[in-house]
Every structure is written in structure tokens, then in C-alpha cells.
What we know:
seven-stranded parallel sheet; alpha+beta; Immunoglobulin-like; 17 helices
Amino acid sequence: MKGLITLLFIILFSFAPLNAQKNYMVFLKNKGYSGAFTYGSPLWNIALSSLSERSIERRVKTLGSGFEVSPEDLPVSPGYIARLEMTGAKIRWTLKWFNCVSLTADEPTVEKIKKLDFVERIRPVIKIHLPLEFENPLPVPNSEIYADAGNSDNGLVRGSKWNPPYLTQNFQDSQDAQNVHGNRATRGNDDDQKYYGGSYIQEKLSDVPAVHKMGGNGKGVRIGVLDSGFDWKRHESLNTRKVIAEYDFVRHDNVTANQENDPAGQDGHGTYCFSVCGGFFEGKLVAPSYNSEFVLAKTEATEYERMIEEDNYAAAIQFMDSIGVDITTSSLGYTAFDDTTYRYEDLNGETAVCTKAINYAFSKGILTFTASGNSAREPWYYVSTPGDGPNALAIGAVTKDRTIASFSSGGPTSDGRIKPDISAMGVSVYGAVSGTTDRYTRANGTSSATPLTAGIGGQLLSLFPHLKNTQARFILRYTADQRMLKDNVFGYGLVSSFEAATHPNLEMLPDGKIKLHKRFKDVSNAKSVFLVYKTGYKKSDRVKMDKVNDNYFTVILPQKAQKEAFEFYFDAGETQNGLNFPSFNRKYYTLPGNENVYIVTPDKFDFKEFAKERAAKYTGINPKIFVKAKPGEKDAQIFINSFLTPKTVAIIPVSDIVADTRYKWNGKDSDGKPVPPGIYTATVYVGGKLSTRQIFLRQ
């Protein structure tokens, strides 16, 4: 028996790795170049050569000519890469934005790397465990599709400066929109239900069909999708889409569908999300941006559970910037990390690598969408990374009845910013099933709401190609249905593609003039439309607008708009066939040096009535109040006040607090009596300091 144990020990020991290989991120002191980084310099040209023409054009639009690249765009010096490889390490990714190289090495090799004179620090790559984003997805029989609806640049990208290595060589081009998609401008509601099939409700809730009729279908927009894999070549709603590039950042190849040894269904999540954003099969599924170009990135592995390594995500975002995407959408929300100290207080928009990658992408002109998360019923509760990014559009989920989904993660971020940003339908959302040619499913999750909203972003950019990502982000939030009472449940409210498309927007012309664009809610047969603007007290002037088509007009703003607040509205001149332009008395204004257009709040606006209306629809869990304390502080008090009156309804003592305590209010006043659902404020008093947040008591 003793000999058998010894033999087993020898066998086990012989198979145990003496020096296990692990993945590390090596942060460098510099990029390894000498000389000044100035416009037209050798370093400038090195940075520029890493970008496609499409990427450069997007950056110039956002940042201006002469500012399209920065020192962060310089690749890590090949000399540094060679010296790292000489240690025996295997390079995974060079992350230029982070001045970092991720690599695989054992401990002795790591010790060698630490001694290199250009290395600042080294740490393990963080593995992020992902909760399942879908709740109870069920296949939908094709026979159900119509019943459900009734109820309720061709060619490869070849920039002259850069040729991406991962381009798909055999992507399928979409058929001509005029031939395949019919005359959308003349469809009625009944026809819409048949046209959109099972996707009708989710599209109708955010006014997608109305913008399709305007011609907003994503054409000319490039969208990057990051997910678990994509079985797009098989499914009828995806195999005619314009996929111009795809790459597997887990296996390091250009196949994003399931491969040998991949878990069954691993590409299901990504296939579904891709179809919700850009799928098309008339009578079954019509997504908002079905006519966009797509770049697909497989960034996670699901051998035992959904998991992603942070450097894969950062590398994918960096790649998408280089290839020139206008939009990224990621339905991956991260809250659980291996071997790290990330906590709620780290959700400050600048800590997690995934969040930093999103921040960099936005700074380069990309409009970024990410799932808020499905943690509202869990101890975590809050928005997940990278949705905590200050410019990332974190998307919450609502039902078809416009109530918040019980799982949809809320805010605020640890530094007090409102999250989610906006919301879309995320319950029973219709999408494609991987591994099949023609099957569909309904699924729940902010994973469902996010690609739907990204597709709406594609509609907006396709109608107004001049818009910068900063302007598009503003418009999507500002035109959602509760901008007057934004909160940490719905954000700015339910997104509306139609409200976004009809909100006036500005184009800054090269000669310094400002051009205003406006699409109107109704097709107008008026011969003339005017912009009427205020020139003084009870004085106004007007200028005729240029007609692009029946509902699209533009005008160069008077010079005074560049110098002072500029208030205006729209009106029609003479009519034709008895039809006149409906102005609805809505007034707008712009501010000098600001590229956004704002709505003038009506003098008779009843804020309290609006608050009551919004509060009436809150359902689900009761609010959680975050109490942040320094070490040694043990007690705190929470004062609950009505939002509509100054009355204090409850004073709650909190004892034995830890560094970050989440207190769940039971919805009762100081006498133990239930209070009505609605909007309240919670003021936390701890350590001599006050902190106030808006909260929501739900039924």
C-alpha cells in the first residue's frame, strides 16, 4: 500500500507544472521613442499609420484636423517587444492606449521582466466572471411571429495608410434596400406589424419604424459588436448583413462562430445581440440598423462559466477604433473579479481597465453603448463596469408597458453620477438563435436592451452623418422621455429614435458658420419653412430654411448665434393643398461655444405633476441607500424626505456600519406606517458630513 501511494505521488507530481504560465499586464515607463510628438513629425506619422482612413476621418470630425492622433496612439516600440520576448514571455496584446503589453509567462520570467529598465510595474491580468445576462430565454415557434406582432461601401476596407489584418474575405453584402425592403414611407401600422414580425413591439416602443420611414436604417454607419461569439453566416436574419471584419480575441483567429472544443451554444449570446441591433428578415425580424456595416469581436470564453480577461476586451476596443467603427455595443456587464480589490467605490468611471478602454474610445470619437447589468435583485444592485464610464451610455431595461425591469441595475456610480443613462425594452425581446437557420427566441436582460439602443444610435448617425459622438450622446439622453426628472432607475428615460431624429442639431462648418438641421415630425407640403428667432424684447426676425426633402430642412444660423444665447422656433409660410406646418409652439435655444440644442422649458410646466406621473410607474424592489464611512466610524443617520414637500417622513439610525453599507429602506415612516410609492430624497449623515441622493420607493 505504501508503495502504491508513493507511485501515485510520483505520477501526480510529474504532471504538476513546476512554473505555471499565467497572464500578466506589463506597464511601461514610456513608449520607447525619442523626439517631439508634433503635427507632421516622424512620431506623428507613426501614430497615424496605425489607423485606417475611416478611423482618421471619424477622429477629424470629432477632434478637428491636426488633433486626430495623440501620444497614446503611438504603438509600443518594437525594441521593447523584442526585449520582452527575449525573456521567454509570449506576447498576447500590445495595448498602446495603456502603454502596456499583456503577455504569458511563468514566475521566473516575470522576475526577469521586472528587472528591465523600461518596465514600470507588472500585475496579473484580471479575470472577470460574468453572470448570465438572459433570464429564461425560450425558443419562439415561427407560427407565433405574426400573432405576437398583432398583439400589442461595398468591398473590403483598405485604407491607404493601413490594411487591417483581420478582415473577412468573403463577407456577404446586403441586397439593395429599395428592392428588398419595400416602400417603407407608405406603410401603415398593420403593414408594420407584418413587416417587423416578432420584433414589432420592441421596435415600436422606441419609435424605430417611424425613423425607418425617414430612411434611417444605419446606412453609412459602422458598428462594432463585442460578445461571446457570432453564428452569423448560418442564420437567415444575419447572413446577408455587411460584416466587414471579425476576430476571436480568445483563440487569436478570425473565426467568431463556435469551433471545435467550444462549449455548445457559446456563440448564442452574441448571435442574438447582433440580430437585435442589425438583423433583417422581412416578416420576422427587422432591427434598427439593419443596413449598417458590422465588425464582430469575440472577447469571452464560456468553458465553465462566462468569463473574460480584461486585456482581451481592451484589445478589441482598440482594434475597433483602428478599423474605424462609429459605434461599439457590448452587452457584457462586469461585477465579479478574480484576485482584485475592485469594489463599489471603484465604480468611479476611471478605475477598471474595461472602463478606461471605453473612455479612450469615446475620446477618439466612438459612440459607446454597454449594458447596465442585471443585478438589481442581487446584493451588488448597482451598474456594472464599463457602464460606470462617464461617457459610456449604460442601458437599462424596461418592459413593453414601460415599467422598469425588476433585474435592471441602477445607480448611482460611487462618485454620484446618474446611471443608467437611458433605457429600452429588455423584456421578451425578439432575436435570432445560433446553431439554426430560422429559429428565434425571446429573452430578458439589459443584454437585450443594449444592442437595440445601439441600433437606434446607428439610425441617428445615418440620418445625420455630421454628428459627433458627443452630440449623438447628448441627443439620445436629452430626447428620452424623462429628461426633466432623470433618476437612477430609468436614467433619462425610455429612448425614442423618433424624438432623437426630429430634435434639431448643429453642424459646425469649416468656415466657422453654424448650420442647423431639422427633420419634422410630419411630412409637410408647405412651400416654405422659416426659422423664427428672437432679436430683442418682444422682437423677432426670421430666415427661410433650405428644403432637403418634405420633412428635412436646414439653415445657416445668423452670426449672433456664435456670440450669445440664441432662441428660436420653426414656422411655415404659405401653404399648399391646405396643409400647413405644425410648429407645436416648441421653442429651442443654443449657447455660444456649445454644439447642442436645448428646449425652452414652458412657463406653465407643472414639475410636481410630472414627478407624480413618473413615480406612478415604479414597481419592483425597494430602494437601497449607500452609506459610505471612513474606518472607525460606526453610526450614521438617514433622513428620508418627500420629494414634493419638505416633510421628513423617516429618520433611520444605522449602527455597526462597515466601509460601505447598503441600507434597504422598508418604505415606512418613523411611526412604522407605510408611505405611498413615489420619489424621495435620502440624506445620509455620517462623520459630520451630509450626502443627499434621490431615491424611489416602488410598489
